[in-house]
Fold this sequence. Notes:
The chain is an alpha/beta fold and 428 residues long.
Amino acid sequence: MADAQKILSVIMGGGRGTRLFPLTKERCKPAVPLAGKYRLVDIPISNCLNSGYNRIFLLTQFLTASLHRHIRQSYHFDPFSGGFVDILSAEQTEKSSAWYEGTADAVRRNLVHFNSHEHDLVLILSGDQLYRMDFAKIVAQHIASKADVTIAAVALPVSKVEGLGLMRVNDELTISEFVEKPKDPAIIRGLAMSPALESRLQTACDEPRCLASMGIYVFSRDVLARALDNTMKDFGKEVIPSLLGTAKLCSHVFEGYWEDIGTVKAFFDANLALAHPLPPFNFFDREAPIYTHARYLPASKINRCSIDHVVIGDGCIVTDSTLKRCVIGIRSILGENSHLEDVVMMGADYYEKDSELKAARESGVPGFGLGKNCLIKHAIIDKNARIGDSVVLTPEGKPDGDYPHDIVIRDGVLCVCKGAVIPSGFRL
């Protein structure tokens, strides 16, 4: 097994997150709230800590304020462990005044910071995926196989690999071909797993499967430096294909739940899945907890409600309402006689004082949360939204696009933007 002190973890803080807009209108992807009380970045950080790797770099660039604040408030280490979560934002130097131009470029420009820490291996992770993984297993395989690069992969049916990097892997798990986001069905089917590899998987599938990259890489230190000694900008598109034939690339097949939170629909579906009786991702694993900001909020108050398959965060007040398949975030306030179905509500950053709430109402502005007699379906309500009484919101029968009062329909999901104010009586 590898010495944990010889491994650095690097989490990519995400690009502009255009496919996740409007949730990324005021924040980067890793800072998007998740499951009522977490943020997406808590997943890779928790996986690192639960794997025994506590030297973590987070590379950030776009709309970073809320992400930086969350990291600063959440992750503190004692002086004896040597652990840290260090934020490395894009910066101007004598050599470059440009921002990060891709995943590989971001890592390249921070090698000088990594090299000041003793390490043999670098674990590179995405900051916007939902999964639980013991990284010690992929590191152990990397060392045992004497690989230069090991890429974590998940087996997916050929009909569900759109937008992912695919690899051809021989029966000894070495990679002989890597294609970034192919669209040609013939190419995709040509990359299907061999019968021998299929037989090793614990689950069966009715159609051929490909091994898709999870965007998780283990690099040997010297190989990473050599691979980035150029102007290549992206790992999947350029760096990994360039190493074929010149370095030993291996695949680590992961068979657990993994979801790439790349679109509004993917985010919406992944959150609502957490309300299932047996959700695909388990937040209740005491052996591998998911860490986040300790907010010291009171327990939620649920008064005379009908609740069916609902996740409710801390510090909420819900009164005389009906909730079905919902995720309700921290500090959410729901007024009487409201009905929510298939709703992800992110809550609020703080409680309003009585004087603030009174002043808002006197000026005709609703308080944080949801008013009385509202009906909302198939929607995401972002943080600090103010929704008045008797509001009806549903995307049914409406095309994707922008609507009044900071409402956006994207991927068929109605999104109330962060800080939106929706007046009483509004219907969409």
